[in-house]
Automatic annotation (TrEMBL):
Pfam families (UniProt xref): ADH_N, ADH_zinc_N
Alcohol dehydrogenase-like N-terminal domain span: 33-140
Presence of the UniProt keyword Aminoacyl-tRNA synthetase in the record: no
Cofactor requirement: Zn(2+)
Name used for this protein in its record: NADP-dependent alcohol dehydrogenase
UniProt source species: Podospora pseudocomata
Amino acid sequence: MTDYKFEGWLGLDASSAEGKMQWGEFEPKPWEETDIDIKISHCGICGSDLHTLRSGWVVRVGSQVKHLALGDRVGVGAQSDSCCSRTGKPCEACESGQENYCPNKHVGTYNGVYLNGGKSYGGYATYNRVPARFAVKIPEGISSAEAAPMLCGGVTTYAPLKHHGAGPGKTVGIVGLGGLGHFGVMWAKALGADKVVVISRTNAKKEDALKMGADEFIATAEDPRWGKTHANTIDLIVCTVSQTDMPVQDYFNLLKFDGVFVQVGLPDDGFPTFQQKPLIFKRIKITGSLIGSPDDIREMFDLALAKGVKPWISTIPMKDANQAIIDFEKGAPRYRFVLENEPEAKASL
């Protein structure tokens, strides 16, 4: 038994997405000696998974956990379990440190079911329990409030940029300057890309993009010649938007020979249709990327420390989570909302 309660904002029905969550107690996953309990200090708000990422302090440690101790400051991303948590040979993805691509059991940090049958409830809460393998130490120099959005939105853009070679000699394009896109700009710059280009509909966020490190800004709705002007100029594009009607054919035309287009946004009605000519004549590659592994998160934190990357965030008291969801859906964040458990505010870095 613990001397603390697991309480949080509960989405009891579809109306919770409209700011009608209810505060209540919940039952964490049944305890295993490979688990830790976390006293949550901060939780980010993400468009695709509104209860996911969190950071806080370890308050209980299983006897089989060797890499964490009581009082460690840790974060958990959008995934908190996979088949590697069970005895026996793990799948190829888990064995290679790519647990986020586990084909056998991918457990989300919210609205998921653990291997022992317990449910995952996310981070709009006071405490949470997770398998320790998926908890990553937050380095000194990164505040808990800054770490929270990095754990999902941050690593979602860091991982594909790193995997596809963003760095010196490359021009990188980021489609969309929202919560994901603003991370993409900063990671591309931190990785040493020669040029970072933001592609958006209007110039409304141009000034912000340049402050984040972008070298160029394309406003597709305000420049009818943008496709021709910038054709064959970009090596790697990471697309963070989720619109089914986005002009992907024009995005492909921006790519150089052997260019790569990575989709990380998830359109509700599927990816737009396109003609295959650029794939054949320019040998471009179209691929996707899913969040990041614990190792990706560690690497990302190291880069953030080395290059001074800090997300643009607004902190909001946990008690105001319902209003935060409403404001989030209206597009208010510039560029990430982070919920903060108020008693912890003074204790965070």
